[in-house]
Write a structure and sequence with these properties.
single chain; 230 residues; alpha+beta; Adenine-n6-DNA-methyltransferase TaqI, Chain A, domain 2; 5-stranded mixed β-sheet; 3-stranded mixed β-sheet; 12 strands; globular
Length: 230
């Protein structure tokens, strides 16, 4: 199935994000992403916590892959989609950036799907050496990555299939949540306040967490709702 096994460092540059100091008065507002903002499947786009910073260097790029430094038992993985505003990563993440731009989209999708898989997660957990469940950059470089041949298009197809399935789950969860909101006077008033994602646009609806469908939804605007999946 695989032509050869390579080390992660042969495929990507592993970048440690710089610590971002909040400059409330002088800086430009940007979004800073953490593990809690990762999409369940498919691309993660503009999301995160707003911070004001002066240094606008080293922002994320499309097709970057993010991996949490803390796992045990699960390491959360994200792949960055199309972004229009500066997006930065928290220091609790590693940024994996493809060294080659040739077929960068499909290569990034393959790596993302592999690291999310049971086999990829097992390889990551094998590198854990502390009770805190952290993984070092030095060890991360050594993780073996299968170089794909015949399964390349299949894995990319699974990526988009998973996206469709998660969208269906989300839509069903919203419908279920709506059934339970018939007794919620707060929802009837439609005074949802500001969007909890961007904190700058009035919320238009309640976005339901896929894994907690019976809880009251999160006030969110249409723009943020389009670009985030719980």
């Amino acid at each position: 199935m695989y032509n050869i096994m390579m080390k992660l460092e042969d495929i990507v540059d592993i970048i440690i994000p710089k610590k971002i100091e909040n400059q409330e008065r002088e800086g430009k507002e940007v979004l800073v992403i953490s593990q809690t903002n990762f999409a369940t499947s498919s691309y993660t786009t503009e999301c995160g916590k707003l911070k004001s910073i002066n240094n606008l260097k080293n922002s994320l790029k499309q097709f970057d892959i993010l991996i949490g430094k803390y796992g045990k038992p699960i390491f959360k993985i994200a792949i960055i989609g199309e972004i229009h505003e500066p997006l930065y990563a928290q220091t609790t993440l590693y940024i994996l950036r493809q060294k080659s731009i040739e077929e960068i989209e499909n290569n990034s999708i393959f790596l993302y799907m592999y690291l999310k898989s049971d086999k990829g997660q097992k390889e990551l957990n094998n590198l854990l050496k502390t009770k805190a469940g952290t993984i070092s950059k030095t060890d991360l470089k050594e993780i073996p990555i299968p170089m794909f041949d015949k399964i390349k298009s299949q894995v990319v197809g699974h990526f988009y299939h998973e996206e469709r399935l998660c969208n269906e789950i989300q839509e069903v969860s919203i419908r279920i949540n709506t059934l339970h909101q018939v007794f919620d006077d707060k929802v009837k008033g439609l005074d949802l306040g500001m969007c909890k994602m961007c904190n700058s646009i009035p919320a238009t609806h309640l976005r339901v967490d896929t894994w907690q469908p019976l809880k009251r939804g999160i006030p969110i605007c249409d723009i943020c709702s389009k670009h985030i999946m719980f």
